[in-house]
Amino acid sequence: MNPMTHLLLASLAFLATHYVSSTGLRDVLVGVLGKAYLAAYTLIAFITLGWMIWAFYHAPFINLWYLVALRVVPLVLMPVAMLFFVCGLTTPNPTLVGKSHLLESAAPVQGIMRITRHPLMWSFALWAVGHIAARGDAAALVFFGTFAVLALSGTWLIDRRKAATRGESWQKFAAVTSNVPFAAILSGRNQLRLTEIGLWKILLSIIGYCALLVFHHALFGASATM
Predict the structure, then answer these.
(1) DSSP secondary-structure letter at 160?
(2) pTM of this prediction?
(3) Residue 18: other Cβ atoms inside 10 A
(4) Contact, 197 vs 86, CB < 8 A?
(5) Residue 184 CB: number of other CB atoms within 10 A?
(6) Which residues contact 183 (CB under 8 A, 6 or more apart)?
(7) Using one digit for the tens of pLDDT, what is the confidence trace for 60-96?
(8) Residues 148-157: pLDDT tens digits?
(9) Distance CA 84, CA 61 (A)
């Protein structure tokens, strides 16, 4: 099989696996598998991810564009992506699985949630877009593009599902937050309060970013600064 075809198939399988949870097929599988559904879903997700990573590293380099100026794009985007990632993991968020009850709290919108209600998704999207721009080859476009498509479409799918299942509590939450970062703030529906994010989260993000710069070549076989 052509290596690029292999990568395309792996990427499509990875996407399909993740989109199952947003279709009626999920309810069918839950009915058949019961509590084993989550374990099966997680296993298949990791298998398809491993397949995609393997296919990416075996795909040929097919140059689509190369601009030296674009090499700095991930260096600029990754600090923001890292902050979104750290905050997304450490901030109570009603958009996450099993956290819908937070919509009923007195103040569900704090910290990074004022900037975007999907910090984790946007962290992956920024990471992916930055690497696509810097690399400029076909394999990177497919590989990182898959993550970008999944992350950005995921924000919309989550919003749609929450709106359908949580009704008025979701509408109140969505009215003062935004999917697109800073949109709610720029439109006057919320305010930027950096003190709510927490200094330790910002410091942890900086440390994580610096660690990636230092160990990027050792971990991924490519320098982050060249």
Answers:
(1) H
(2) 0.91
(3) 19
(4) no
(5) 24
(6) none
(7) 999 999 888 899 999 999 999 999 999 999 998 988 8
(8) 999 999 999 9
(9) 31
